[in-house]
Amino acid sequence: MNNYHVCRLAVAPIRKEPSDRSEIVSQLLFGDRVEVLEKTEKWCLIKTHHDNYEGWMDYKQLQKISELQFHDEKAYTALTPLQLDNTLIANNGTKYYLSPGSTLPYFEDRFCYLGDERFEVKSTPIIADKTKFKIEVEAIAKFFENTPYLWGGRTLFGIDCSGFVQIVYKLNGIQIKRDASQQAEQGEIVDFLASAELGDLAFFDNQDGKITHVGLMLSNDKIIHSAGKVRIDPIDDQGIYNAELGRYTHKLRIIKRFV
């Protein structure tokens, strides 16, 4: 059985259980690759290629591809740029509107391909370059400012804290895990907040000591993060201070450097 697939929609929910009423734990973006681990008539248990995340999906939202196409890393470097109008036109003339940071498989001469299906790409794709991280990360992060918070979200129309830093890093050519608790196990420790630099990730814990939040440092006293919406707040050794609420909202646990 060929278990290799790619997401064929602009965005598709990954759910905790095989039910339309189940919690959305993450989302696939167009061009994201998955392996199908189990399948029922409608639902399939998938594992994502980019971050090994598992969950349930509606099988109709996937396109089957060959094992060769699945593992062809060079074919998945083109990404949709930081703009609202990332339109694809399918063979039948219908349109798809993609969020920034979506993957355009096998992009060449204005077209990308999912299996045998061809799509005309109306925007100019970018190739993420991690050597430009320090130059570009701030503008990329700020592009998502005011995006509403959405549990499990990874798009411009709804994003959670770890989905936000993950897509910002992806647009900078760096792949990190999906959840804040997983991301906190990656990278190198920054010993003091005063030593934090642009692009470092700060992690925050709850009363039980569990990592529940992450944000991207803009400097050693400012952070951009998704809480209600993607916003910029001051940060000190206690954590994130929300001036609108007049209190600290997140307790600082650890800072990590990835670049």
Structure description:
Strand 18 and strand 19 form a beta hairpin. Strands 17-18-19-20-21-22 form a six-stranded antiparallel barrel. A five-stranded antiparallel β-sheet has the order 6-5-4-1-7, with no helix packed on it. The protein has a four-stranded antiparallel β-sheet with strand order 10-9-12-11, with no helix packed on it. By secondary structure, the protein is mostly beta strands. The chain folds into two domains: 123 residues, SH3 type barrels; 128 residues, Alpha-Beta Complex (endopeptidase fold (from Nostoc punctiforme)), CATH 3.90.1720. The chain is globular, with a radius of gyration of 19 Å. The protein is built from four helices and 22 strands.
CATH fold assignment of the largest domain: endopeptidase fold (from Nostoc punctiforme)
Number of domains: 2
In round numbers, the mean pLDDT is 97
Sequence of strands across the biggest β-sheet? 17-18-19-20-21-22
CATH architecture field of the largest domain? Alpha-Beta Complex
Low-confidence stretches: none
CATH homologous superfamily name of the largest domain?
endopeptidase domain like (from Nostoc punctiforme)
What class would the helix/strand composition place it in? Answer: mainly beta
Shape: globular
Strand content: 35-45%
Order of helices and strands: EEEEEEEHEEEEEEHEEHHEEEEEEE
Q: How helix-rich are the residues, as a percent range?
A: 10-25%
- What is the β-strand count? 22
Cα end-to-end separation? 39 Å
Supply the CATH class of the largest domain. Answer: Alpha Beta
The biggest sheet, with number of strands, parallel, antiparallel or mixed sense and barrel status, is: 6 strands, antiparallel, barrel
Separate helix tally: 4
